[in-house]
Design a protein that fits this description.
single chain; alpha/beta; Rossmann fold; 9-stranded mixed β-sheet; 6-stranded parallel β-sheet; 11 helices; 15 strands; globular
Length: about 350
């Protein structure tokens, strides 16, 4: 890989959705009318629904979810007349569609993605794409076979703070990135039953770790080549198989090191649902982001300072549409998607085997 830069909670997701809407400064025009549907309304569906008012050529025509009431509620603002199904296979057979957004539970996602690909529909899916390597291998083969486009809901790389970190590295302000430290800490809150079983959840590392794995690659330009991990559930017996603490140590392609720690231990009294942090230490300086302090930078040539002039927020869904229908190079490539899934599976495997695993 070149050393240059490579191309949960409803409250948080509502904020993300609103930001996604605001990110579209002008309507994106497409060659014709695009008919979309949703499968499973749980997840980052706001990334798809939020920008719709600024997408005059996109129409949400149908939604499928196990709960018809949940489906109706989720799309009421976007299109109260959207047809509602409780079986996505029936929807795929009856509706004339161009693109499908897929959320729902982790364990059911791969089958839904594959069904859409076999119908030759473009797909933007929640993460991870599946809970086993074999799931992603089948999806990869189907994308190639059917000649359709696929994206995955990793919206954090489109957020101003992480775009700013990427720009800092691109400009060479901190030199070569040698170490990264990442954190995701969430409130536990009520969790659906599927998250309490490994067979339908797949693990905390692929479920939320995939965000930071993508961000570490995106901001630093480094590749994560080996992983050693630990994962556990401490307390909260009602959560059964769901790990609430994990830690992974990665080796970088240049010999550097990255760490990722995650937990579901953030107190309910905390002001925000999540506490995400990312620190990049390079040969000439350090750049980091956390919500409490914003983006900060210190180098051998400058005193510590907060970066207040951040890049504008972008929209993953708008970027995907622009790439599929207007030929623009996507900001999130298929290679990025495959690697994010593969690295997380390797990190989970490292925890299960108590060994170092190549990614």
């Amino acid at each position: 890989m070149s050393h240059k830069i490579m191309a949960s909670n409803l409250t948080r997701r509502s904020f993300v959705a609103a930001s996604a809407t605001a990110a579209v400064a002008a309507p994106l025009r497409l060659p014709g009318k695009i008919r979309i549907a949703l499968i499973g309304v749980e997840g980052h569906m706001g990334e798809i629904l939020g920008p719709l008012p600024s997408l005059p050529d996109v129409e949400l025509v149908a939604t499928a979810d196990h709960s018809a009431a949940a489906a109706s509620k989720a799309v009421a603002k976007a299109n109260p007349n959207a047809r509602i199904y409780t079986d996505y296979r029936e929807m795929l057979d009856k509706e004339k569609l161009d693109l499908v957004g897929i959320g729902g539970s982790n364990g059911e996602r791969a089958a839904a993605v594959l069904a859409c690909l076999e119908h030759k529909l473009h797909v933007v899916a929640e993460k991870p794409l599946g809970i086993e390597r074999a799931d992603v291998d089948r999806i990869k083969a189907s994308v190639k076979k059917n000649g359709v486009h696929l994206s995955m809901l990793l919206p954090m790389r489109f957020s101003p703070p992480y775009l700013a970190l990427r720009q800092i590295v691109e400009r060479g302000e901190i030199g070569e990135v040698a170490q990264m430290g990442a954190q995701k800490s969430y409130k536990l809150g009520p969790r659906p039953e599927w998250m309490k079983k490994h067979s339908s959840y797949g693990g905390t590392i692929p479920y939320i770790g995939i965000h930071m794995v993508d961000l570490m690659r995106f901001t630093s330009g480094r590749e994560l080549v080996e992983a050693a991990s630990f994962q556990s559930r401490i307390g909260h017996p009602e959560m059964a198989d769901m790990e609430n603490v994990t830690s992974t140590l990665f080796r970088l392609d240049n010999g550097g090191i990255a760490t990722l720690r995650m937990d579901y231990l953030r107190p309910e009294t905390a002001p925000t649902h999540g506490d995400d942090r990312l620190r990049l230490a390079g040969t000439e300086g350090v750049a980091e982001y956390q919500e409490a302090t914003g983006v900060t930078l210190v180098t051998g040539k400058s005193k510590p300072r907060r970066i207040v002039d951040l890049p504008p927020k972008q929209s993953l869904f708008v970027d995907f549409l622009d790439s599929v229908y207007n030929g623009k190079k996507p900001a999130l490539t298929l290679e990025d998607i495959w690697r994010a899934n593969e690295i997380c599976f390797a990190a989970r495997e490292a925890a299960e085997r108590h060994s170092i695993v190549k990614t």
